[in-house]
Specification:
By secondary structure, this protein is an alpha+beta fold. It has a four-stranded antiparallel sheet. The longest helix is centred in the middle third of the chain and has 15 residues. The radius of gyration is 17 Å and the shape is elongated.
């Protein structure tokens, strides 16, 4: 099993949810986060004062899926969420040793 942490622009969340639904992902966790990478933020003028905004809003989507599904999700996300500009996001992929559903005690992929 693989855990995917997908950090994207907030406006791309619906597109990512469609990809995950199409791959039959059973559960996701979504967090609003802030950060920056190569983008380094932007400068904004407000009431005659210049502000440097270097923490930009992002969305982090986390899910645990079987290995074969992870590859399909990553491939589709790179193809469909890409705008070609800095700040499109990143996908972090982790190995998951085991999953336990607390309610039933099921282990592994049955717990997903």
């Amino acid at each position: 099993m693989k855990k995917l942490e997908i950090v994207i622009r907030p406006e791309k969340l619906e597109a990512l949810k469609k990809i995950l639904e199409g791959c039959k992902v059973s559960g996701i966790m979504i967090s609003n986060i802030m950060g920056y990478g190569n983008q380094k933020g932007y400068t904004q003028m407000y009431r005659g004062t210049t502000y440097v905004v270097n923490l930009l809003p992002k969305v982090k989507v986390e899910t645990v899926v079987p290995e074969e599904v992870a590859d399909a999700i990553v491939e589709q996300a790179v193809k469909e969420i890409n705008t070609g500009e800095h700040g499109d996001g990143k996908i972090f992929i982790y190995d998951v040793q085991d999953v336990v559903r607390i309610r039933t005690g099921e282990h592994g992929e049955q717990a997903l």
